[in-house]
Predict the structure.
Amino acid sequence: MDQLEVLLDAMTLEEKVGQLNMVASFRAVTGPGALQEVDDLIRAGHIGSLLNIWGREEVARVQRLAVDESRLGIPLLLCHDIIHGHRVIFPTPLAEACAFNPVLWQKTAQAAAQEASEEGVALTFAPMLDIARDARWGRMVEGPGEDTWLARQIGVAKTRGFQGEDLSFATSLAATAKHFGAYGAVTAGREYASADVSERTLLEIYLPPFAAAIAAGVAAIMPAFNDIAGQPMTANRYLLKDILRQRLGFEGVVISDFNAVGELLNHGVAHDLLEAAVLAFNAGVDIDMTSNAFIEGLPIAVDRGLVSLNDIDNSVRRVLRLKERLGLFKDPYRRGSSVSYNAQKGKDQRRALAREAAQRAIVLLTNKDQLLPLAPDLICLAMIGPFVDDVGAMLGSWASAGHEEQTVSFFEGVRKAAPNCHLDLVIGVDGLSQDVSGIELALAACRKAEVILLCLGETAEMSGEAASRADIGLPGAQRALAEAVFALGKPVVVVLTSGRPLAAPWLFERATAVLATWQLGSEAGHALADILFGVINPTGRLPISWPRAVGQTPIFYNQRATGRPTQIGVHYSSCYIDTLASPQFPFGHGLSYSAFSLLDFACLTPLVKHNDNVEVSVRVRNDGARPGEATLFFFIHDLVASLARPVLELKGVKKVFVGQGAEEQLSFVLAVEDLAFVGPELDLTLEAGRFEIYVGQSADPVGLLKDSFDLVL
Ligand code: BGC
């Protein structure tokens, strides 16, 4: 018999349920009981995994309790949210999505896994793959943005990066794709609220990123906190069993979100913890994170015949199998015992990677009069605003064990890059308050400067979990500061720190240049300086449509065609009467210091059949004054189908480096199978007919080149 089956045979029901119980360690803000109590529960075999734990000594200490002092010696699964770095912090996921670069995404996950595993962590609750179309929702910062194709690439790259070639390697972490369902679709962008999404939209928009992560071998899935049309995801048997297990073929472990099983009482679908445990377990949740419902409820539920022992065994098997795949039975201490953590070389490499990731995350939104890049021989710069030196805001909302003191602020980065330039730093107003008394001092510094760097945005706490906003503009007195600075009539570069796009049309109109710098991580200041002074030519592109006004949200480029398509100035068309329907900046937008033209776009396969490929070609010319990287987006539009199809659907992205005045010929190949959509019967359907295919540098319809092909079946 397989070793795991021997072990399973030897386990009591309580020990089995213990494997399905995850408890927060002493580092948690919330969590059951004191450290001593946790220790005793580990010894008793009532805890199979811990979260919020890292650090060699602590990890070894708790692991010893499980291995040496529990009856069966089953090692603990030690988990922590390694979202965008552990010690060296990379840009937040939304920021990193701007890179449109799977190699980079994989590398940063791998580097984070290396650091975290060296401190004993074995599983991370990442990647977060929630499609987010509503900037009010604070967790947009943690995810891939609005597009399903993009989120699929991120799901694959991150899973591979965290998990490495083999989960048993000491540097690999098990990844958890989260939050399964449609968490990003919560009503009005309000955190933890209900979502009501059609099954078609779930299958077409929200779930494919999870399917991609599953195909890449992701070890775990976490259902979302929210309900969908009244069915909390934690108790959603249809989505967790029929869709996740059957349709998507997921064989790994399903881990509830923090206290989510217990919160079934608040949802009003369970009377008590016992009922909550039964609902969640029978729906397909294997591990209960911190609500104590499984440990208290499941033994009674088995006794009363509400839960089958066979199902318990299957869940325990999945958990033990994961521990085995992680190599924990062979060597429970393999993570946390390597000596390379402090090796300077590794640290330097990770910081260099963080700098590159941050450079690629920055999006040049506007650049009037080609103000950027700045000349290296500037004599006097003023750095104004609450985010000039705010290292907390640079690190972002899931900074794990990142150190603020090892974070390069914008001020420090610019100072190092321009040592001979006189730099004045004045905050002016803080990020949140209405106090305008510091503005005069800021203006005095601005008057002396040749160029003003105005660092505005949101604090780290204003995005992330439980940070939804009804007003997605600049908070506090920052607008007053900006208006006063603009009134001086000097060149102003606005540097925007945020976890979401901020609706501020007035700002884009008045600033000379605007850089979206999101939350860039440990190397924020260096990366900003690299872009400002043109050491790096910007390559970042928006993974979201940037709204003009909060009332436009949810906003996304791949909307279905309507009966009355948007036409500016046409009353009975799909418009607003008080603002444009188009975003401030389209999905994919991002300027560069080069200027690219796309020429001679042609579809080389006017007629395609099943199993064929659609092939297009295009020429990219760099008309700018410096070499640079162009980003090309390939979209399709299915002109007539049995269902209204999106006006544009992203099918691929290509990046190409083009020398100054040079040209590159590019081709793009799309499998006919990728034209399938979730049809009237909710299965993947390929329908014959004409398709338009486009290439552009963003989803802005104005800049798209078009051709077409026919699919014959
Ligand atoms: C979040 C999850 C996270 C978990 C554990 C929850 O509040 O929703 O994304 O992984 O906490 O920290």
Residues 3-325 form a domain with the TIM Barrel fold (CATH 3.20.20.300). The pocket of beta-D-glucopyranose is lined by residues 51, 81, 125, 178, 257-258, 465 (CB under 6 Å).
